């Protein structure tokens, strides 16, 4: 049974003027990943990068007990991760909202060089926390919302990867063996942008 729908949106400014961009393009949510989600494999996409904003998602009330209470983390990523692990999501490419950008957006759209001055812990710590809390919640509700061993393994692997990234040392030369280990285990490709993310972690 379809559990949740993720739909498209158009970006607008404070005066609601179109900015000529759509949310999925900004979040790099490409056609291959859209097919992957429609094929009931949302977890593979959601562990790699966030593609959902709260205003562009609708889900069945059946999953309310699984979702609540929401921990101190991004609510939209939390909801999508939990439901996408135990059930199927689908995507609706038709833009149904105007996604307004303004100075007080809690998160807003990703901006170039936004992580340049942040530590690895600040960048990846919240993602790690969300995945660890999601694993606890999923196992707690496993009798009501079945989850396959394969998906538990994927979540565990993502946690290992995020834990490594969040604790990468400030000295670049000390990052090398840790990053190479994750690259050799294919975790940079499964849970990030492959060699591009590997290189970014080494050079940051």
Please explain how this structure is put together.
This protein has 204 residues and is an alpha+beta fold. Among the domains are: 99 residues, no CATH class; 36 residues, no CATH class. It contains 10 helices and 4 strands, in the order E-E-H-H-H-E-H-H-E-H-H-H-H-H. Strands 1, 2, 3 and 4 form a 4-stranded mixed beta sheet that branches. A hairpin with a 5-residue loop joins strand 1 and strand 2.
Structural class: alpha+beta
Low-confidence blocks of residues: none
Strand-residue fraction? 15-25%
Q: How many DSSP helices?
A: 10
Radius of gyration: 17 Å
Instruction: Give the helix proportion (percent range).
Output: 40-55%
Q: What is the tally of beta strands?
A: 4
**Can you summarize the main beta sheet?**
4 strands, mixed
Mean pLDDT: 86
- The SSE string, one letter per element, is EEHHHEHHEHHHHH
Question: Roughly how many Å apart are the termini?
Answer: 43 Å
User: Shape from CA axes?
Assistant: globular
Task: List the SSEs and their pairings.
Layout: E1 2-12, E2 18-22, H1 23-26, H2 31-38, H3 42-46, E3 57-59, H4 64-67, H5 75-86, E4 88-100, H6 120-140, H7 149-166, H8 172-184, H9 187-191, H10 195-203
Parallel strand pairs: 1-4
Antiparallel strand pairs: 1-2, 1-3
Helix pairs in contact: 5-6, 6-7, 8-10
Write a concise synopsis of the structure shown:
Among the domains are: 2-100, no CATH class; 169-204, no CATH class.
């Amino acid at each position: 049974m379809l559990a949740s729908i993720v739909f498209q949106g158009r970006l607008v400014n404070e005066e609601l003027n179109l900015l000529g961009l759509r949310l999925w393009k900004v979040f790099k949510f490409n056609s291959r990943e859209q097919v992957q989600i429609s094929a009931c494999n949302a977890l593979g996409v959601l562990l790699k990068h966030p593609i959902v904003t709260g205003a562009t998602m609708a889900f069945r009330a059946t999953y309310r007990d699984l979702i609540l209470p929401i921990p101190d983390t991004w609510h939209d990523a939390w909801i999508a991760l939990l439901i996408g692990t135990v059930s199927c999501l689908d995507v609706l490419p038709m833009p149904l909202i105007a996604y307004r950008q303004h100075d007080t957006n809690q998160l807003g759209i990703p901006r170039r060089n936004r992580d340049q001055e942040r530590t690895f812990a600040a960048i990846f710590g919240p993602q790690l926390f969300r995945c660890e809390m999601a694993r606890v919640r999923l196992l707690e509700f496993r009798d009501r919302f079945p989850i396959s061993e394969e998906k538990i393994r994927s979540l565990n692997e993502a946690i290992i990867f995020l834990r490594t990234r969040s604790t990468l040392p400030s000295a670049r030369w000390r990052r090398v063996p840790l990053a190479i280990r994750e690259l050799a285990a294919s975790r940079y490709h499964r849970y990030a942008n492959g060699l591009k993310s590997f290189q970014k972690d080494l050079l940051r």
